[in-house]
């Protein structure tokens, strides 16, 4: 029997409570729609949101989380820096992280990328064609050459992310822009996947292809190792016979004193 992957889906859970359109699409929250859409026997899924104590990301929750999915938009600044530091550390130690849509501007994504993570955007309800440019990658399995979303918020280049990202999806928009819409990174022992489709006023998290990508990404990002990052002083494995000029110089300084 396969060991379950423990997934925590984090959502601001703000628009659903304050916007009638979003509430009609996601009455129980974007995070619940994603959870229902990717549910499988090998996944153990829990939900967390901003207004819970410690943003729902307590030490116990993070310790039990193999992959964290992050959706944020207008309340990035309300996430305490201490929570960001804890999540950052867990990623370096091996926890997987999926950052969705407007989470590109979240504190956690920017801290892990070390860049501004800015982009161009437009909300005009236009069509998006998501091209699968790495059909051999685990995240793209079951996706054809491309899939289309009828109405989306446009995200366009230049996307200010590090050059070490591996691009698996590129999107074209009806208005003419293109965007690196699916990009993977590695930080420490952790795997990160950024995926742009997912604006809150469109039913994108009901789309079968989007949900397949997210399910694939969870399995790809699961930890292969969980290990604390430390900087230990270690003893030599073998005898060191080389003369250290610096040690001799230091000894001479001591004798002269």
CATH class of the domain at 5-117 and 182-232: Alpha Beta
In CATH terms, the superfamily of the domain at 5-117 and 182-232 is: Class I glutamine amidotransferase (GATase) domain
In whole angstroms, the N-to-C terminal distance is 69 Å
Q: What is the percent of helical residues?
A: 25-40%
CATH architectural arrangement of the domain at 5-117 and 182-232: 3-Layer(aba) Sandwich
Detail the poorly predicted runs: none
Instruction: Tell me the β content.
Output: 25-35%
* N-to-C order of helices and strands: EHHHEHEHEHEEEEEHH
Radius of gyration: 22 Å
Structural class: alpha/beta
In CATH terms, what is the fold-level topology of the domain at 5-117 and 182-232? Answer: Rossmann fold
Largest sheet: 9 strands, mixed
Q: How many β-strands, per DSSP?
A: 9
Number of helices, counting only DSSP H or I runs of 4 residues or more: 8
Mean pLDDT over the full residue set:
95
Strand order of the largest sheet: 2-1-3-4-9-8-7-5-6
- The coarse overall form would be globular
